[in-house]
Design brief:
GO terms for molecular function: 8-oxo-7,8-dihydrodeoxyguanosine triphosphate pyrophosphatase activity; 8-oxo-7,8-dihydroguanosine triphosphate pyrophosphatase activity; 8-oxo-dGDP phosphatase activity; 8-oxo-GDP phosphatase activity; metal ion binding. With about 325 residues, this protein is of the alpha/beta class. It folds into 2 domains: about 140 residues, Nucleoside Triphosphate Pyrophosphohydrolase (Alpha-Beta Complex), CATH 3.90.79.10; about 180 residues, TIM Barrel (Alpha-Beta Barrel). It has an 8-stranded parallel barrel with strand order 8-9-10-11-12-13-14-15. The radius of gyration is 21 Å and the shape is globular. The protein starts with a strand and ends in a 5-residue tail after the last strand.
Length: about 325
């Protein structure tokens, strides 16, 4: 099977994304695509990205904000009904989000690509709603783009404790119903109160239908409304993943290279859409855990095949610096309320 490595630029400006158009004569033609191309033998994925964007649309992105999104492994065996595996394409996509400046955005208005292929800016909502068909290997990118670059992690129920159990639930629900930003991504991590968790989570889900909920496996099984994402924790790593459903999206809490390698393997058979990598800095919730620091965080994040969210002692103000070290975004408790 022929293997190809490709760098892709998910180019964004003000909630708009740049797409090229593949003609009918190309493999998986007559559809749109992100800008990019093959990685040469002497190139890194990022250097290939910079070269391809320059060659295809004439824009220098060496000084742009470039965010690592992940890797996608895809075989085109079924796509082209080719029974000869020697002629079947297998690609590894190294995906980066590239934030354009206003000047770069304006420079492409009414322009075509270097090979006179049409290029078009499309609204994020239209892209996510699949109004612009993409090659099969690109569809996971839409799942990644649907995520905000900040994830709020909830406090456990014990923080809102009251002598009356129902009052504890009301305190938790009222706190987050009022404080969560519109369309927030919220990991409702209530921990050791599973007999009450489903009451609290279900009530908040019904009050805040705009919020994207992430839940632990135990909580996901108990609530009335299925969450968008199930989070795999240390306990799940210990139990193993043999019984995981394949119709869910998963996040994973990772702390070392072994965790990342296991999740990369799981992503080949399940929809793993992101990981929390922690702790980047010292935290009050886990005072005995040794912080990774940003350099070690980057070394681990570089191994991940999906977006990585930096967690531990961070606030939304740390998002850009975390992205410079390979994060897609940041997550946290105290700094995000």
């Amino acid at each position: 099977m022929k293997k190809i490595q490709v760098s892709l630029a998910v180019i964004e400006f003000d909630e708009q994304f740049l797409l090229g158009f593949r003609n009918k004569n190309q493999h998986q033609g007559d559809c749109y695509e992100f800008i990019g191309g093959k990685i040469d033998n002497n190139e890194t994925p990022k250097s290939a990205l910079i070269r391809e964007v320059s060659e295809e649309i004439g824009v220098d992105i060496r000084h742009n904000h470039i965010i690592n999104m992940g890797q996608i492994w895809h075989d085109y065996v079924e796509d082209n009904n080719d029974t000869d595996k020697h002629n079947t394409k297998s690609v590894v996509l190294f995906v980066f989000k590239v934030v354009f400046t206003r000047l770069q955005f304006d420079s492409l208005q009414g322009k075509k690509g270097a090979e006179q292929q049409p290029i078009v800016w499309v609204k994020k909502a239209d892209l996510l709603n699949k109004k612009y068909p993409l090659p099969n290997a690109n569809t996971r990118i839409l799942t990644w783009l649907a995520f905000a670059n900040q994830i709020v992690i909830g406090r456990e129920l014990a923080y809102f404790a009251d002598d009356e159990k129902l009052k504890t639930i009301e305190n938790w629900v009222d706190f987050y119903a009022d404080r969560l930003p519109k369309n927030a991504h919220f990991y409702a991590r209530l921990k050791d109160h599973h007999e009450f968790n489903h009451h609290a989570i279900t009530k908040l889900q019904k009050m805040r239908t705009d919020v994207v909920f992430l839940l632990s496996r135990a909580d996901a099984l108990s609530v009335e409304i299925k969450p968008a994402v199930v989070v795999l924790t240390y306990d799940d790593f210990c139990r193993g993943f043999a019984d995981l459903a394949k119709d869910c999206c998963y996040f994973a809490s990772c702390h070392n290279l072994d965790d990342v390698i296991k999740i990369n393997a799981l992503a080949k058979t399940h929809r793993v859409v992101g990981i929390f990598l922690s702790p980047v800095k010292a935290t009050k919730t886990h005072p005995m855990a040794k912080p990774l620091g940003f350099e070690k965080f980057q070394a681990l994040a570089n191994h991940a095949h999906m977006p990585v969210f930096a967690l531990g002692g961070l606030s939304p103000k740390d998002c850009q610096i975390a992205q410079r070290y390979g994060a897609y975004g940041v997550a946290g408790i105290r700094g995000f309320e």
